[in-house]
Amino acid sequence: MKKILSGNEAIARGAFEAGVSFVSAYPGTPSTEILQTVADEYPEIHAEWTPNEKVALEVAAGASYAGARCMAVMKHVGVNVAADPLMTLPYTLIRGGIVLVSADDPELFSSQNEQDNRHYARFAKIPMLEPSTSQEAKDFTIEAVQISEEFGTPVLLRTTTRISHSMGVVELGDKKGGRTPSLERHPAEWVMLPANARVRHPVIEERIRSLKVYSDASPLNVIEMGSPKLGIISSGVAYQYAKEAFPDASFLKVGLSYPLPEKLIRKFTAQVEELWVVEELDPFMEEQVKALGIDCHGKDRLPLCGELNPDIIQSAITGAAPDDGAQPDLPPRPPSMCPGCPHRGMLWALKRNKCFIAGDIGCYTLGFLPPLSAIDTCLCMGAGINHAHGMATVFGPGKEKIAAVIGDSTFYHSGITGLLNLAYNNGAALIVILDNSTTAMTGSQDHPGTGITVRGERTVNLDLENLVRALGIEWVRTVDPYDVKQARKDVKEALAFEGPSVIISKAPCVLLKSRKVPGRALTVDADVCTGCKVCIGLGCPAIEFRDEKAHINETCVGCGVCADLCAPGAIGGEK
Amino acid sequence: MSQGACSDRQIFMVGLGGQGILLLARALAEWAAATGREVISSETHGMAMRGGTVTASLKIGRYAGPLIPPGAADVLIGLDEHEALSHLPMLRKDGVSIVNTAVDTGNFSHVVDAAGIARSLGAPGAVNMIVLGCTAQVLGIDRAEIEKIVKRVSPAKAKKANLKALQAGFDALVP
What we know:
The complex is a heterodimer. By secondary structure, chain A is of the alpha/beta class. Chain A has 20 helices and 22 strands. Chain A folds into 4 domains: 2-214, Thiamin diphosphate (ThDP)-binding fold, Pyr/PP domains (Rossmann fold, 3-Layer(aba) Sandwich); 221-318, Rossmann fold; 342-506, 3-Layer(aba) Sandwich (Rossmann fold), CATH 3.40.50.970; 523-572, Alpha-Beta Plaits (2-Layer Sandwich), CATH 3.30.70. Helix content of chain A is 36%, strand content 18%. In chain A, helix 19 (484-496) links the parallel strand 17 and strand 18 (501-506). In chain A, helix 16 (383-395) runs parallel beside helix 17. Chain B is of the alpha/beta class. Chain B has helices at residues 21-34, 81-86, 114-120, 127-139, 143-153, 159-172, and strands at 9-16, 39-43, 53-60, 73-78, 91-100, 110-112. In chain B, strands 2-3-1-4-5-6 form a 6-stranded mixed beta sheet. Chain B starts with 8 loop residues before the first strand and ends with a helix.
């Protein structure tokens, strides 16, 4: 049977067909739909959102030790969080196949960097597969489970945005049976203290040698001979672009891209006149090809930054200038916080208190855009609290108003330890947890604070205020961000407190059913509006400014924040 | 189905986050696959769509990669007029454009006031399905076939409204 599947849906299907029974993940574009699909389509597989990627990989490792096939799923930067277990996991004995899915984001569609996670395969010394279509995404997931069990190693399945979020026709197969869990003890292979790990390291090196032989023979690495004039080594979506740009060239299509098939590369090189390695981001394969003593083109002409496309590859190889075409002179439309977003009122309240606002990863990062211009830093998940503590400590008490904002999902991901540090080291920053009861940026996933699992089952009801107190924070207050005037006063009071303070800004995401806005648009009385632009300063996409007056368009959901701030009282309608 | 609907074709779609461009893209992809042809599509998700521009590409026939090069799209579908205009360079010279707009500025080969029709149907969220109906009509896609697909890909609670909108879209361009 054939079905149209996205790369992510195909990976979920592959896990099902491979007999995977345990999948863990933290949401992150472009990986999110993998676990979502597992949860929605394959009830026989245990699926869970974990608070972060380190937990996702570690619970998967536990499932593997118990004999189950498993998969941990994350976006590229999530693997950084999971890097600690990842670097030692290959030292340990793998029972059930374990696949780590890393969804990379060349071009930074929805990420803070565009790191090339193929390096992790080499770094951790584990095999890596790179699908280039939805069909391959499914097939390679199954292959990854097989390699994992055959060689006793975690396997990295690396996709990119264009694979994860592209759809193609996939031939579905049957489920190939699973594994029955059983309790075993392997202290020499599972207790990684120096004496044991020292013995395990040579096992990894020997395994990589065997995998090199396997890579040369694997059907995932194939020579497709066309014209011998141009030979292209490529993997992932770059292979498809190169194929589209040069349909008549010869290709070494690499599916198992670590360890590389060295003999096959030498064989291919001998058959072509001009050799190119075409890959997105870093010269990962190119440098290894050159280390074999083979001369080739690649990043001397192809860009290191951003994603590739057939035109870029065409002009790099032929040397012709790319045809950019005439672009119409229209303003771009950057993403922004939604009309009625509860974050807006709280960011405004912080700004009016003249705070430096250390930011974090989430929708509120978009508050950086003018006219709100409220976010001053954004580095990685959980960093904002720590930025604020570091800065506030350097300035000393009462000198500068240093605050941090962090979303609820991000707080559970990696904010708790930062807050603990703030309390432990007698810090004095104001931390605002923007609690909108969901992981909003990735499309509303549940998390430990929502009391709901990935399958919609009720679970523990976490008391955030109590959690914050338990970490050692004395000054905690839950605030309604739609009541902006009160929020501004609360921020002022929190800043005046000697010692660390936490405001929980609590209102559901405006895209949730539980939202606290009426959903009816407000209106501006043009006779009363003075054109003062205070409402414009909120950066709400529903408020426009025309003919020296504010106008509210139909995207307004009636949150009323602008009406509260309108001194002449020009904004009305049902709140 | 007309001959035109059977040839290889690259369709570029653009709109704003929340307008339902991905469902429109999915419906067209499912339709093309149901006719037995190869299909590759590509979409933007995540931060990229938070109220910002959302694009989707659909390549029907024998293509390798998921992206459509600028100036190569046979069809441009725009759920938002401004976005359609800024992505007009995606379209090849004699390509077909089907765009939701209240005012015909002469920039596109086919325009439809999908937002207005959606409002009159009491389904303001169904702009995507009205434009899909227009597209089906322009491309010569069989009415019953696309209906079947929309029935399948629509979320249960939107099914009725989507079908109504699709029909309205189908008839909107007929003078």
